[in-house]
Structures are given as structure tokens and as C-alpha cells.
Amino acid sequence: MKTINDFNFKDKKALVRVDFNVPQDDQLNVTDNTRIAAVKPTVEKILNDGGSVILMTHLGRPKGEVKDEFSLKHILGEVSNVMGQEVKFVDECIGEKAEKAASELKPGEILLLENVRFHNEEEKGDEGFAEKLSKLGDAYVNDAFGTAHRAHASTAVIAKFFKSTKYFGLLMAKELQAIDKVLKSGERPVTAILGGSKVSTKITIIENILPAVDNLIIGGGMAFTFIKALGGKIGDSLVEEDKLPLALEILGKAKEHKVKVYLPSDVIIAESFNNDVERKEADIYAIPEGWMGLDAGHKSRDQFNDVLLNSRTILWNGPIGVFEMSNFSGGTVALGESIAEATRLGAFSLVGGGDSVAFVKQFGYADQVSYVSTGGGAMLESLEGLELPGIAAINN
What we know:
Layout: E1 13-17, H1 34-38, H2 40-49, E2 52-56, H3 76-83, E3 88-90, H4 96-103, E4 110-113, H5 120-124, H6 127-134, E5 139-142, E6 166-168, H7 170-185, E7 190-194, H8 203-209, E8 215-218, H9 223-229, E9 233-234, H10 244-256, E10 260-262, E11 266-270, E12 279-283, E13 286-287, E14 292-296, H11 298-309, E15 313-317, H12 330-344, E16 348-351, H13 354-362, E17 371-372, H14 376-383, H15 389-395
């Protein structure tokens, strides 16, 4: 893996693709700077070498139009705060103005370019646009794992203009190493927890990870499709009727790979999708009509805990209950606690995917697991075994 540690950036301008697509409030203030902070080690390495850094990113979906609300000038202050120095800004990313700002950049300085998605050519992967961007730097660094699954101009196409000076940033390297630990080099037993609402969104992930894992915990709404396929009565719980044969097929493949599959044995049920309705525990194979399962029950939590405390490598993607509603968050909280405890005992734990990441941040578990991925879609596609365009561009 070619990382920035393989190169000395002294007197070089590094064109660094980052993912600063950060959440903002109504006043356009940054409400979560995790993605900005995540690339600071990469920026510091380049500056400490005696180089300068030109940051390029997208923000939101301006669809090729210049829209003030998506201007990076609104996040400039937060980027400067995180980097610990004043970051310069230019309200273009290509053309004379951008080239002048880049050429005037001195070693030790940082320049933030305007939103690359103000140009339609970015998302089209336009080679001419990528070439114009490439004129700004001496080396290209991709540290934007969150957009590595997009074949956009600044995330993949641009690399062809830097034949020998293209590298992964330190964040990107950490992401790839974390995924490699789960799929290839992790200490066994390896346990994957897949939750969320639909089996259909996780099929290829399940198929790709089966050869790599020892245990598969299936929870959340997707569990009911498996339970119904096995003959259980699930009441009004979420189910994908057309995926019942597939669920049985997945269980069959797991058996072939000698993977132990753990489904919830009991659930917290309610009569409607509402936090304040009556709730009770039920056997997951015998949910009464008119009731739906919204969280893992206490027996399930204990069973999952036993599996996790005996694991050495853990992947978690997807909640096992409707954690957004306080009365149905207990199962996911218990799971987070089990993963945190396993991590304290020496296991490697990787959390990825939007809802899981939101959970660990909201409930304070982000510092209690080994690694929290910054890329939702990119991580899922990696787990599906796909080579991401942003990765291939550096490797090839």
C-alpha cells in the first residue's frame, strides 16, 4: 500500500482529496467535525516534511451549480480551528484564480479549494476537469475513504495525472487496514453483527464475509425475514416476503462455511411503531398478530454477549433495535456495551455503516471500540468485496 509515509513532501504541493461533507446547522455552522479531525494526521505529516497542502472536497449536492449554502467558506473557520492554523481559501477549484492561489502557497501553509461539485464534470468523472485540478499540485493524496466508491474526477480520475506521485493518506490507510483485519488478517474467532431493516441491502456483504467469519449475528428488522423463513410467526413485524427463499439460502451457505448463525430468540414487541405504546417481551417465533418486534429481548442480549466476549475480531454494521426510540434502544445499547467489553479484553472491533456510527457517537461508545469507519457506502462496498475506484486509482 503506497501511503504518504513513502514520500518526502519537502517543497512539494500535495493535492489532498478529503471528505469534508460535514453536517451543519441552520446557520451553516459545523455540528460534527469528525471527518475534518480524521485527516489532520495526514496534513501534519505533509507540513512537517516541509510541504504545503491543497485540500479539495465536496459538500452536499449542489448538482453542478454554485450555491452559497454549499460553499466551503462556511466551514473554513472550523477547518482552521481543527488544523490549528489559518487555512487559506479560494472560491474556485480550477482555473486562473485557483492556480494563482496554489502557486503562491508556501511550505507549511494550507489552502482549501471551493466545492468541487460546483462543477458537473466532477461527478461525471470528466478527464479534462481532473487534468485542470491536477495542475495545482506536485503529488496527489487520496484521504477521502467516504467517497472512494465514487469514480469521480477528484477521487479517481485525477490519479492518472500523477503516475509516480499518488498516495493513500493516513486515514485511508487506517480504513483499509481495519477492513483487511476483518476479512483477511484478523485473529479468530471473527464475529460479524449485521443489523438494520432489510436483508436485501446486506445480501452481498453476507455472501462475501461468510468465508472470513466464524460467527454471524443477525438482528434488527432483517432478522424477521429469517425467522419467518424458518416457520416462525412474526405478527406485524417488518418482513421482506420475496426474500424468504434467499434467507434460507444464506443459512445454507453459512452451514457450508461452518459459520454459526445467531438470530434473536426473544424480542420487545409493541402494537405500533411508537415509543410510548405498551410493550412486552415475546418469543421471536411466536409474536401475536397485531404486534411487531422493535428490539432484541434480554435472552438475545445475553446470548450475543457470550458470543462477543469470546471473539477476537468483531465487525458491527447495523443496529439490532429501533435505537432512535428510547424504549427500544436497550438491545443496541447492550450490544454496544458487549462490544466495548470485548474490546477492553483485547478484541479488535470495527464499527461501520451510517446507523451504527450514529449510535456509537450518540451513546458514547466511539472511544470504546477499536475503529469507527468514516465511510458508510464505501465501507459497505469494501465488505461486499468490490474494488473501489478511489482505491484502484492509487494501486494501479
